[in-house]
Amino acid sequence: MKPMYLLAACLWAGACAAQDMPFMPAHMHAHASTIASAAPPAFVASSAKPYAALADDAMAVMDDDMRRAPMNGDPGHDFVTMMIPHHQGAIDMAKAILVHGTDPELRNLAQGIIAEQQNEINVMRAWLQRHDAGTTTHTDKEVHATH
Known about the structure:
Layout: H1 3-18, H2 29-35, H3 51-67, H4 75-100, H5 104-145
């Protein structure tokens, strides 16, 4: 198993284990998303729910989004498409502690998590755009070379 696949599989297996869900290999994600139930509602950090309920909501959205990540077999692509919702889950959980937490140190940590994870999401999205553009350009060159 290639290192990137191993890392992605370990992250996914850990997320599944934390929620008492069976681990599903990456190649089965496309099939699973077609038979899975409806996506959970979007995460909203609100004082109308206790922290534990917000954390559960954030985990449910993250898990569903990771499961539905568009995989194409390229380790870099698959890693990034799964890490974006993983990072968004961290942001959502940090928002939940900002709603309910009073400890200044943890609130500061949560604000840092939001800033850093959002920055990393932006970096990953930019990587995907460059990667997808590079793949398309490469394919176009190959197609034109055969004409």
